[in-house]
C-alpha cells in the first residue's frame, strides 16, 4: 500500500498492470491484447491449468477482426462528429474575401492588431479549396491561398454608418 507520496514507485508496476489489462473505450480491447494479440495472463491464472490460454489461441483471429471493425466504426463516428461542426465555404469567381494575417513577427500593437487584410477578389477557385486572389487594383497575389483562411467580405452599408454617427458627425 502507498502510505506517503514517496512510496509511489512501489505501486507503479501494479498501476501499469491494471492499465494494460483494463478494456479501453475507444478500441474495446486492452492495450496488451492489441500489442500481443492475446489477453494478459493474470498472476492468479498462472496457477490454473492452461485451458484459458488454449481457448484464447482459438479466438485470436476473431478478436483481431472485431477490433479492426470497431476501430473503423470509431473513426467514422469521430469523422461524422467533426463534419457536423464544419461550415462548408464555397467561394466562386468574383467574390470579395478577406485574407487572414499570419504573422511571423510580433506586432507592436499586440491584441489590437487586425486579424484580416483585404478586401481581395477571387480570380479562380479550385475544387480542393485553394483560391487565387487579386487585390482591388487588379494585381495577383504571389501564391494561391487556402479557403480555410478566408472570410466573406461584407461591404459596410451606409445605413450602418448613419446609425453609428450622431447628428454631430462624431462617433458615439
Describe the structure.
The protein folds into two domains: 5-85, no CATH class; 96-164, SH3 type barrels. 38% of the residues lie in helices and 15% in strands. The protein is built from six helices and five strands; from the N terminus they run H-H-H-H-H-E-E-E-E-E-H. It has helices at residues 8-20, 31-36, 43-47, 51-58, 60-85, 158-164, and strands spanning 96-100, 116-125, 130-135, 145-146, 150-152. The chain has a five-stranded antiparallel beta sheet, with no helix packed on it. A hairpin with a 4-residue loop joins strand 2 (116-125) and strand 3 (130-135). The longest helix has 26 residues, at 60-85. The radius of gyration is 30 Å and the shape is elongated.
List the helices and strands and how they pair.
Blueprint: H1 8-20, H2 31-36, H3 43-47, H4 51-58, H5 60-85, E1 96-100, E2 116-125, E3 130-135, E4 145-146, E5 150-152, H6 158-164
Antiparallel strand pairs: 1-2, 1-5, 2-3, 3-4
